[in-house]
Write a structure and sequence with these properties.
The chain contains 11 helices and no strands. It is an all-alpha fold and about 260 residues long.
Length: about 260
């Protein structure tokens, strides 16, 4: 089977399976009398009335801005620290206990601390998102840097390439597949922590909307918020994969050549 045919088959399955699940959900829920599981048609109608585009500005946009800020801060801090720790064995061993201790703290346990120290505004939510997203990016960056072929590093030294050029032109590109793996993991964590942080001491956001809908027994609205989060997660992952494929096209080509 050609690569193009395989690609189209994969795309067809990716589109068809969700549609079939929605059709099955609609058929099984049609005429449902269960209060907590309303018909899919009611949920979709509520979704249209709520998110196209009534509450986009009041809830969706603030959520996405906080998520983007936390994720961006985590990416910059984690990649920078990961490069430094990956290049120094002593620094890596010194930082290991601190890293393992901090990343083992359950994210919800940080909410009381963050509220007391930072407050209940957007800064608290951004801190929670950034704190949790740092660790997968940091660890993957360290693994990527330490996994660079020693022969390649010695070759750059023998040719007199400066440390700065070695970092930007050799170490960072060589570690980028691992870095992107950490960034992709952190992206899903950012969405999860965005919702969790908005369910405590918040006045807006998608997580706040879902929780308030549950508390006021607005069940179709609650389901519409859950569906929106699923759509956002799928969209974020799709965009990230496209960016990753474009930026790491050289890596796929090198891997195919090596296999060939």
């Amino acid at each position: 089977m050609s690569a193009r045919r395989e690609r189209w088959l994969g795309l067809g399955l990716e589109v068809t399976v969700p549609i079939l699940i929605l059709v099955l959900w609609g058929v099984l829920s049609a005429g449902s009398k269960t209060y907590y599981f309303p018909p899919l048609t009611d949920i979709l109608t509520t979704f249209k009335d709520t998110w196209l585009f009534s509450r986009i500005g009041s809830d969706a946009v603030p959520s996405l801005l906080r998520m983007g800020a936390g994720y961006g801060i985590a990416a910059v801090v984690a990649v920078s620290a990961g490069l430094l720790l990956g290049l120094s064995r002593r620094a890596r061993r010194a930082a290991a206990p601190i890293v393992e201790f901090l990343r083992a703290i359950p994210p919800p346990a940080l909410l009381p601390f963050a509220i007391l120290v930072i407050g209940v505004g957007a800064s608290m939510k951004i801190f929670i998102i950034a704190f949790v997203c740092i660790w997968p990016i940091l660890l993957n960056t360290i693994d990527g840097v330490t996994g660079v072929d020693p022969t390649l590093v010695e070759t750059t030294r023998s040719y007199g390439i400066s440390g700065r050029d070695r970092l930007w032109r050799v170490m960072l590109p060589a570690a980028s597949p691992q870095i992107f793996a950490g960034l992709r993991t952190a992206l899903s964590l950012a969405l999860i922590l965005m919702v969790i942080s908005e369910m405590v001491a918040s006045t807006n956001g998608i997580g706040y909307f879902v929780l308030q809908s549950q508390r006021t027994f607005a069940i179709p609205e609650m389901w519409s918020g859950i569906i929106l989060l699923g759509i956002l997660g799928y969209a974020f992952n799709g965009v990230f994969v496209l960016i990753e494929r474009r930026l790491l096209r050289w890596h796929r080509g090198a891997r195919v050549s090596a296999l060939g």
